[in-house]
């Protein structure tokens, strides 16, 4: 029996919708691309957020964003750990992120929360703020989207090793 036009339409919609629905599960490449590309559009380097984004919302009107990673993770920027919560949030404006939540940097024995950052492209730097202190870090360290490490056994993979060679402290001094 032939399908009615409505059935055909529904089948067609299902065929289009199915890959999108799957995209949320296994299409991390496209999802992480979205979040990292928005950073880029806002004058910030893509590599500020690791490669394991699983969901992402951005309200263009306010600049508020929420990013969910597959899990919390650790990334080397320079010589020290940076820790990413599973949930990240903040407010993006051109060249800056404020009210940031979910990113910490290890300074000696302490983890400090990064509260905001401002790109200073004229100096090739990003200024990271943790409370009242700030530190400039070369933008070049964040050009490539880093691979998430799980922090177990101090083993870090992929981009982490490359970034580490540059031997620059990542974030704000305390
Ligand atoms: C997003 O907001 C910017 C200004 O904040 C505006 O220029 C742009 O057109 C907006 N884009 C969309 C898709 O609404
Ligand atoms: C992350 O956010 C989701 C919803 O936005 C929440 O259900 C979950 O508990 C949060 N996880 C953590 C570790 O904060
Ligand atoms: C800052 O972020 C928190 C969530 O981390 C949110 O509850 C709060 O409303 C935000 N504050 C501003 C001024 O945007």
TrEMBL record:
Signal peptide residue numbers: 1-23
Pfam families assigned to the protein according to its UniProt record, in alphabetical order: DUF538 (PF04398)
Native source species: Lolium multiflorum
InterPro entries tied to this protein: At5g01610-like, DUF538
Keyword tags: Signal
Protein name: Uncharacterized protein
